[in-house]
Design goal:
single chain, 170 residues, alpha/beta, 4 helices, 25% strand, globular
């Protein structure tokens, strides 16, 4: 771990009981959903992490506990540091607190998490669809979202697909 991040990770572990992991030079801290707002305030106010550069989610379906992880990437521009925060979310009624008041640019990212994954962002100022049409049903980036597609023809399945569709008879 980067020696400059050790006091940051230690403070998160002391105040929130957070664990951390290191992978290819990237430090990630795991927090509970009810801790994310306070942790972001601590990182911004006391440690100079003044930029939210990424906010997204991952679906681990069919695993249900936790099914989702919400991932936050924070940067300290003055100290040239990066820190990842991961929040495991259960699959039933998934929700996380909004960090919009700490990092205003989280607004659209949180709307995207709601729109694409169906993870409710509590306390958000305008939680509505951002990418999909307003009358769309479901959340397309969930792994259990039905894929409506047409099978592609390859040499191994040529007899399974309707030949007349691709090669009309003359």
């Amino acid at each position: 771990m980067d020696e400059n991040l050790q006091p940051v990770v230690a403070a998160l572990a002391d105040r929130f009981g957070a664990s951390h992991a290191e992978f290819r030079g990237q430090t990630t801290v795991f927090l509970r959903p009810d801790q994310i707002v306070q942790a972001c305030q601590l990182l911004r106010d006391e440690f100079g992490f003044n930029m939210l550069s990424e906010l997204t989610a991952v679906d681990y379906w069919p695993q249900q506990e936790p099914r989702f992880h919400v991932f936050y990437q924070l940067n300290s521009l003055s100290q040239h540091q990066r820190l990842g925060l991961r929040v495991p979310i259960p699959g039933i009624k998934p929700s996380v607190e909004s960090i919009e008041k700490v990092f205003p640019n989280a607004n659209w990212h949180e709307r995207e998490i709601w729109d694409m994954f169906g993870i409710r962002v509590e306390g958000h100022s305008d939680l509505r669809r951002i990418l999909m049409p307003f009358d769309w049903e479901g959340h397309p980036l969930r792994k259990d979202f039905p894929l409506g597609y047409e099978e592609v023809q390859f040499t191994f399945n040529v007899h399974e697909i309707d030949q007349d569709k691709f090669y009309p008879k003359e």
